[in-house]
Amino acid sequence: EVQLVESGGGLVQPGGSLRLSCAASGFTFSSYWMTWVRQAPGKGLEWVANMKQDGSEKHYVDSMKDRFTISRDNAKNSLYLQMNSLRAEDTAVYYCARSFQSGNSDFGYWGQGTLVTVSS
Amino acid sequence: QSALTQPASVSGSPGQSITISCTGTSSDVGNYNLVSWYQQHPGKAPKLMIYEGIKRPSGVSNRFSGSKSGNTASLTISGLQAEDEADYYCCSYVGSGNFVFGGGTKLTVL
């Protein structure tokens, strides 16, 4: 069974940093694109970033590319999101997602999400 | 990249069919057959319902179907059931490895 478990969320002050983790199991992690999607309270889904199987490609939404860094460790079956210079508008549930198949076309499996709250 | 345009809400009675539209541009929806649809119940993670515009993952009811015409993709739910009440989001590949979601549609089953 595919499982994705996010962690690392919490309360952080504006301007602070946070590193989210996503632990994957139940599939060959190194065979799939991985993605971060976020959802602000009461709002819609927003694509944040993704990363190719071998880490050779990574892509970001323009508004976050200077502050967020996606990475993965295939040996540890883990995906990460380093978030710097956090702002109040970054408050959201952050989901880790796996592509349905090996290509980069969709988000077939999702974790339960981890809440990041940016507030003083 | 601007968000795709979805109606804020749609409604239907049990047994009826409804269609949710997702309008983009010739740079996203119109340029790729890579629209996906997600169902999200309150407090839950999204669930993939349709991928590559028209394909349905195993386990998803055949009451759900996807289509596309020009720059607009659509999700149709036939034989509406109470459990279908949820938020629905479309998403399109926009090139260069990037994606954009629609604003979401709240489906109410009357």
Structure description:
The complex is a heterodimer of chains A (120) and B (110). With 120 residues, chain A is an all-beta fold. Chain A has strands at residues 3-7, 10-12, 18-25, 34-39, 45-51, 58-60, 68-73, 78-83, 92-98, 109-110, 114-118. In chain A, β5 (45-51) and β6 form a beta hairpin. The termini of chain A are far apart. The model of chain A has no long low-confidence stretch (mean pLDDT 96). The N and C termini of chain B lie far apart (35 Å). Chain B has strands at 9-12, 18-23, 35-40, 47-50, 64-69, 72-77, 86-95, 98-101, 105-109. Chain B is globular, with a radius of gyration of 13 Å. In chain B, strands 1, 3, 4, 7, 8 and 9 form a 6-stranded mixed β-sheet that branches. In chain B, strands 2-6-5 form a 3-stranded antiparallel β-sheet, with no helix packed on it. The chains are: A mainly beta (120), B mainly beta (110).
